[in-house]
Design brief:
alpha+beta; three-stranded antiparallel beta sheet
Amino acid sequence: MSEQPEISREYILNTAAGFLIQQLGTRGITATPLTTEEGHILEFETGGSVSMDNLADEMQRLPQQDWQETLHRWLEFSTAVANTNSEPEPSS
């Protein structure tokens, strides 16, 4: 039985960002991948963001066949973050 070849972190980051951007777009949410001093994030037009580094860390620990479930969980989390930040500010 051969060992699974190591998948690069860059590949994981690009795969995850592409999936989330496409799926969030179908929900009317615009997201942009950014690299900051703190690391890689996916920023929503509403001003919220999620850490792509945390997602990549999680995916690196999993076999590739288990990525889909993790990506869907992060899609729901990202949707919640984007929607929370899109609520209008209360007027004073």
